[in-house]
Amino acid sequence: MIKKRYFGFVPNDGVTVEGQFVNCISALTKTLKSFNFELRNILKQTVFIKAENNTKYYDIKKRLTKILNESFDSLVPPTSFVGQPPEGNKLVAFEVIVALNQSTDYQIQHKISDDSKYVVVNNGNFKEVYASGLISSDLFAGTGEQSKKVFDKLKAILEKEGLDFSDIVRQWNYIENIVGVTLENKNLKQNYQIFNDIRSDYYKTSRFKNGYPAATGIGMNVGGVIIDFIAVSSSKNLSIHSIKNPHQVDAHQYSDKVLVGENSAQKTSPKFERAKVLSNKTVNEIYISGTAAILGQNTIHQQEIANQTKTTIQNINNLISSDNLKTNGVSISKNIKAPSYIRIYVKNMEDIPEAKKICDKYYKDVPALYLVSDICRDNLAVEIEGIAEF
Asked: Environment class of residue 36 by beta-carbon count within 10 Å: exposed (0-12), middle (13-18) or buried (19+)?
């Protein structure tokens, strides 16, 4: 794997969405320069925006894309525009994944499949694929129709690169009105359940010998259905492990008790692992899936932001502890005290200060980005994902 770093930017200047976005790009440019990186080092990026409806979402996306094209010229990386307002009532925030080493051992190629941009990092022994912003052209269609179109785009990229769904190691699933209920095929189904059923249909074509991807399924107030992903080809020089949490039921083993929808309807479980470890001679990293205050398969501390945040952090700490990693077949010589980067989703804007106070206590100095979004269960107030290194 190529060494990477995650950077999140929240504007400190600007009144309009364009002004705040330019401020974020300026901060990005200064950061890249301080590390002696170039724009070509960006593997994928996510733009988080505040928009009241999908008509305004389209408009903001168009305006910010114009700024990206002017700022990046021909090197605009794969980009998602996610309808999740940033903390502090800001209009926009920005996150990038940057390749640390641009050595002769790696080749970074910018490619396109249909209308979807993606980046391929070619190593002599394996390839990495970074894709962002896989989205349906019709945000006013139903969740099911949009999900199928997005998974078709994902599948097309994988096939173009000689990969399949089992090669995905990290996936982000953004779903508008995620806990909303829709009448589909004469059955009432939660939008997240509709997405999960379609994901299961596509995934069943692969064997997943290394387990499912690490993943996040999270809500948006606008934006339809969007998928980002990272995929890696198999290689004898790369070790991939799925990591279980000893205090949580694997999400793909959830029972009908926690899957929302009429009992008569087909309900498949969310197909993801709690974390994924990738290791080779130069890189040891852990993709931490979206994690919440769930023990076993049940939510605890119903809607209590403080206790749910603490439990979520404890779940992450248990997940990435040296003892748990060793139990899951990963050799590690030191204990990981904290992730190297986190993204925190909070259901209510007014709860962000409390979540931030607790995260700062447990994960002091860990770079973090706070966003407002629905969580995949009505009784969850916070969800945290991240990346860790060892």
From this structure: exposed
Closest by CA to 255, choosing from 269, 273, 244, is 269
- β-partners of residue 242 are 276
Q: Which amino acid is at 106?
A: Y
- Round to whole Å and give the CA distance between 29 and 25: 6
CA–CA distances in Å: residue 226 to residues 73, 116, 131, 215, 376: 24, 12, 11, 13, 15
Q: Treating both helix axes as pointing N-terminal to C-terminal, what angle do 352-362 and 305-320 enclose, rounded to 10 degrees? A: 30
Encode pLDDT of 232-288 as tens digits.
Answer: 999 998 999 999 999 999 999 999 888 876 554 578 999 999 999 999 888 899 999
Residue with tokens 């009144």: 15
Give the sign of the dihedral formed by CA 328, CA 330, CA 334, CA 340: negative
Answer for the pair 348, 390: CB distance below 8 angstroms, yes or no. no
- Sign of the torsion formed by the C-alpha atoms of 33, 133, 258 and 277: negative
Three-state SS string across 258-289, please? HCCECCCCCCCCCCCECEEEEECCCCEEEEEE
Instruction: Please check whether residue 251 is in contact with residue 269, taking contact to mean a CB–CB distance below 8 angstroms.
Output: yes
Q: What are phi and psi of 237, to 5 degrees?
A: -90, 5
* Percent helix, percent strand, percent coil in the chain, to nearest 5: 30, 35, 35
CB contact set of 29 (below 8 Å; sequence gap of 6+): none
Predicted confidence (pLDDT) per residue in 123-176, tens digit? 888 899 999 999 999 999 999 999 999 999 999 999 999 999 999 999 999 999
Of 35, 50, 62, which is closest to residue 221 (Cα–Cα)?
50
Q: In the structure encoding, which two tokens stand for residue 360, read together?
A: 């700062």
**How far from 327 is each of 194, 197, 214, 245, 322, CA to CA, in Å?**
34, 31, 18, 10, 9
Type of residue at 160: K
Give me the phi and psi of 322, to 5 degrees please: -60, -40
Provide the 3-class DSSP secondary structure of residue 354: helix
pTM of this prediction exceeds 0.90: yes
DSSP β-ladder status, 294-295 and 341-346: unpaired
Q: How far is CA 306 from CA 8, 295, 302, in A?
A: 24, 16, 11
